[in-house]
Write a structure and sequence with these properties.
Order of helices and strands: HEHEHEEH
Distance between the termini: 68 Å
CATH superfamily: Glutaredoxin
Largest sheet: 4 strands, mixed
CATH class: Alpha Beta
Strand order of the largest sheet: 2-1-3-4
Oligomer: single chain
Structural class: alpha+beta
CATH architecture: 3-Layer(aba) Sandwich
Number of strands: 4
Number of helices: 4
Strand content: 15-25%
Helix content: 25-40%
Length: 150
């Protein structure tokens, strides 16, 4: 009997924990399933560098087109891409349109930024809005140089 009670007591906790994880992933609270995703193909460590570009770093942004902090990252991503040129490949995934990248990278909140080296190994991760200046400093620590001033 005690065993049955323990299972029943833990089941609601498991459901609540699962619901909390799902709500955390949703982050900003918008609904999913809208047509017209601007998400790029999934960048795995192997495919992130197969485009023929000689990127030293891949900057993977996991967010949504409908999340306010995610929208605030758009100009930052564009500035990083123009500032570092072909040294950085910027990839965006709308995880509300397709949650496969969220599962692959194991994210729980958006926006999340994942940085991969030229071999596809993750060397840095950040959650939330990430200021351009901090990303630039991170990339310069990795040996990248600015090719343009935004």
């Amino acid at each position: 009997m005690t065993r049955g009670r323990a299972f029943v007591a833990h089941t609601p906790l498991g459901l609540v924990a699962g619901l909390l994880v799902a709500l955390t992933l949703v982050g900003c609270g918008a609904s999913t399933g809208a047509a017209g995703s601007s998400a790029a193909p999934l960048a795995t460590p192997m495919s992130a560098h197969s485009s023929g570009r000689t990127a030293k770093v891949t900057f993977v942004e996991l967010g949504s087109d409908k999340c306010i902090p995610c929208k605030e990252m758009r100009p930052v991503m564009a500035a990083i891409e123009s500032t570092f040129g072909d040294q950085v490949k910027v990839v965006f995934y709308d995880v509300w349109e397709d949650d496969a990248p969220a599962r692959e990278y194991g994210i729980q909140m958006i926006p999340t930024q994942v940085f991969l080296d030229d071999k596809g190994a993750e060397f840095h991760r950040h959650t939330g809005f990430y200021p351009q200046e901090k990303i630039e400093a991170l990339l310069m620590e990795q040996g990248l140089t600015k090719v343009a001033t935004p």
